[in-house]
Amino acid sequence: MTKYDEQFKLAVVHQYLDNQGGYTALAKQQGLERGMLRRWVKWFNAYGKDAFKKKFARYSADFKLSVLRHMWDNELSYGQVAVQFDIRSPGVLSTWERSYRSGGLAALTPRPRGRPKAMAVPTAKPDTPPDNDNRSREELLAELDYLRMENAYLKKLEASSGPAAANAAEKAQVVQELRQQYPIAGLLKVAQLPRSTFYYQQSLLRQDDKYGQLKETIKAVYERHKGPYGYRSITAAVRQSGYHVNHKLVQRLMGVLRLKSLVRPKKYRSFKGAVGQAAPNKLQRQFVAEAANQKWVTDVTEFHVAGEKLSLSPVLDLYNGEIVAFETSKRPVFDLVGSMLTKALAKLAPHERPMLHSDQGWQYRMPAYQRQLQERQLVQSMSRKGNCLDNAAMESFFAVLKSELFHLNKFDSVDALRDSLTDYIRYYNHDRIKLKLKGLSPVQYRTQALAA
């Protein structure tokens, strides 16, 4: 592993702080790992120019235990704890944790420095058997009891996990099972388990999990929605089940259950297309509607599967985010948009005339498309040239769709993707809750508003 001096680390950190590049660009430029550069910046922000000076520290067992307890109580990573306590090697925390799990506080005690003292020369040869004739009957019986206890302990430990793989909890469990037959002091000596560690493990077993039922509910919600929900959405879903729970508790329990949203945030990328005849931008980024079928937005997105392409053209109602209608096609022809618009218009009442907003794509400038809008007296609106933020509501839906469906699954064919899109859009409309809709799905929100 390459070692870097103090001057080099400071120079790279200053490059980052002077906005000469991000983590990825600078790491690639300097031949570093991105995570290493992030740690350098954190250390510099915490300790200034002295962050990279060599430090030789010898930590006591009590200090190590306090650091570990702080890490466990606050659910922090090795890197975060290392920065807080100025421990230059985050990997040493893993060693401390492993040592404490297996041997308790005694295993954290630092070894004495220097060479070990010379061993005393034995007065008798090692191969000479002990003279048992000189020992009393009580001593022989005590040795026999110890060997029986050791044999019983090793048998039970072998049956559970094996002596090599046993941790402190498993050793404590075996000692607890045998303590009715043998003295506790002898069992702890055989197990090489500190008394404090044994009673600590027993206290953990006696603790009732008061959040057991809530954990099961959280896990069920997470699995039902197949992973895209974060802690805020799961909090809303759990509250619908009758729990009065804070989102911070849900976030903590999700950490204990190792549940994390599988969705990655997506960045918007603007494409400056060719200028053509377009309708004015009448929507003006007013993405809020007071009732259903007042403002619609539409666009076309493309998927690549097994060497083929599939285009999707949906219409979204800005009132509740519901997908009013959609159409798919292997080719981005006008029929894709025309068929989608026909389906959407069929769902309108005679008096409903929503504004329909899109980008400046060629499909939306076609006479046939504009004629359909004019026949139903719908107002047409278009984004400005090369400005996808003017249609951010539709772009947001595409980002959610690709994050929760396309990027989390593998599709063998375009037909399989088309079927999954149909299922997902139904799920999106009827089951997927939104926080801004008071924890309801789009259809539930619209239905509730009509009933009010």
CATH architecture of the largest domain: 2-Layer Sandwich
- CATH homologous superfamily name of the largest domain? Ribonuclease H-like superfamily/Ribonuclease H
Tally of extended strands? 6
Low-confidence stretches: 120-128, 270-276
From the alpha-carbon coordinates, what is the Rg to the nearest angstrom?
33 Å
Kindly report the CATH topology of the largest domain. Answer: Nucleotidyltransferase, domain 5
**Whole-number average pLDDT?**
83
- Top-tier CATH class of the largest domain: Alpha Beta
The CA-CA distance between the termini, in Å, is 67 Å
Total discrete domains? 4
Number of helices: 18
Percent range for helical residues?
Answer: 40-55%
**Which of globular, elongated, flat, extended, rod-shaped describes the shape?**
elongated
Specify the biggest β-sheet.
6 strands, mixed
How would you classify the helix and strand content by structural class? alpha/beta
Strand content: 5-15%
The string of secondary-structure elements, in order, is: HHHHHHHHHHHHHEEEEHEHEHHH
Pfam families: HTH_21, HTH_28, rve, rve_2
Protein name: IS3 family transposase
Organism: Massilia niabensis
InterPro entries: HTH-like_dom, InsJ-like_HTH, Integrase_cat-core, RNaseH-like_sf, RNaseH_sf, Transpos_IS3, Transposase_IS3/IS150/IS904, Trp_repressor/repl_initiator
